[in-house]
Amino acid sequence: MDGTSINNEKLINDVENNLSRNEIQIEENQINNSDIKVYEKELSFSTIKIYVLKLCNDYNITISGGDNPHIGTSVLAIPRPSLTGDESISATSSVMNMVGHKDEQICRYLAEKVCINKNAVVLCSGGFHVDNISKDGINEVLQAVKELAVMI
């Protein structure tokens, strides 16, 4: 181990020993009260919620809903100049799906829409699950995400 590693470990230990739980609670409450926005829409059969945490110029978004909210997909959208040459902003996205999950469509749409609208890096994760959801139900979820995206 070099001297830098020893100094880093000592610093971490000093911080952990000197930071009280009350200070951590205050930081958590500050984030909950000022930086996280929650967008919610009642569907005919469930509720969808979108949690948006603004991190400086970037956004960390979570989609949650249905009977079994989960992390089925994560999409990282990065802004870039559009390939059309018209000076507009577009997005390049990387997607990680859990096997058997179909949440990419809603997470990708939201990540790319916010990325382009805000010219910011966006990470969107989450999942909406309802057993035996109908095609109309899927369309209702997609429409709700599109409506909520405009509000972010």
TrEMBL record:
Alphabetized InterPro entries for the sequence: LpdD_chaperone-like (IPR048844)
Domain Prenylated flavin chaperone LpdD-like: 47-150
Originating species: Intestinibacter bartlettii
UniProt protein name: Prenylated flavin chaperone LpdD-like domain-containing protein
Pfam families in the record: PAC_bac
